[in-house]
Structure prediction request, 398 residues.
Amino acid sequence: MTLHRIHSRRARFCQWLSNRLGEILEGSSSINWRWCPTLEMPADHGSRGIEAPALTIDHQWFKGPEFLRQSPESWPKNITPVEPTIEDDDVRPPVWVGLVSRTDPRPVSDFIQNSSELPKLVVVVGRVLRFIRNCRSRISANAKPRVTSNYLFVSELKEALNTCIRLSQTDCLREERWLVGRRRPVPPESKLSKLTPFLDDDGILRVGGRIGRSIFSHERKHPTILGSHHLTNVIIRHHHLTFGHGSTERVLGELRDRYFIIGGRRTVNSVVSRCSPCERWKAKPKPPQMAPLPPCRITPQHPFNSVGTDFLGPFYVTVKRSTEKRYAMLTTDLVCRAVHLEKVYSMSADSFIMAHRRFCADRGVPSEEWSDNGTNMVGGQKEMADELKLWDQTKIRQ
Prediction:
């Protein structure tokens, strides 16, 4: 048995036996182990015992089997290894390892999962249902007559949409449909427990309630229940496109006339937020990185020591019986943003000079002044520079 275990290639032994076999095969190979007859096995004398007079110096306990001193061709013939069976207590039972793949037997459900446009989906399913009805009309005499029109009727489109909704409810609300179909209560932990759901004549799960006698349409009184399914996203996307890429609240309001979506606002918002045209329209340009502020904007100093000047207007005022234009010169401190306004009669350089003189008389002469280089300010600066050149600087210094 030990020789069979050493030569085994497929059996899985227990942990202790596997460790012992591993130690044996680390220092040798399985082909080095051969069969030895029981009568010539020296190890049996140590376990079974031997009388002392028989234990001489020529005994096989000291010299080993007699055939070892002969050529290998004359050794006992080796046995044929046999794989241990599961009946052996030291052999582990085999373990099956594999992959089980499940094929969906409903091709329509698979088609719904791969669709992105509701009108196309409804048309394809409608034509499939028409084909099935036409095939049945050839077999059964009680079936509906064949339809050969190239276009689908409104009833066929409605039936196709109901078929898609019924399959989606079977996928995501299977337990609730099973309970409602057998007139059993929905469990309290279900999201439909407060909706009193029921199945209509088409097998569609709808919201119940106490407004069944109202004047509203049947779809508004008992909206269709939509769960977390790909068809729900397709319906939301269709309404989003139909109503001009409407917002989440607009799409949700329109859907509530016919459907009750579990987690409606969250689901609608997730679909609307993934709309590519809406993302492009709502995208905002990245603001450019602003340059560092100049020292005059961040250096603490007295008010109106560094200023910026600009004009605003015109303002229409009544002078006697006529209407004239007036402007304002706005001067702001670059650090504390204090504002000073001076009335200006026109946008000429003379008016700018007079307004600037009044500002300097009131706030003091600034050490630094910034502007947008308006023509009146450039002309005023040039005129004042020309006048300064005419002054006798020597007498001024004296």
Notes: The longest strand covers residues 306-319. DSSP finds 17 helices and eight strands in the chain.
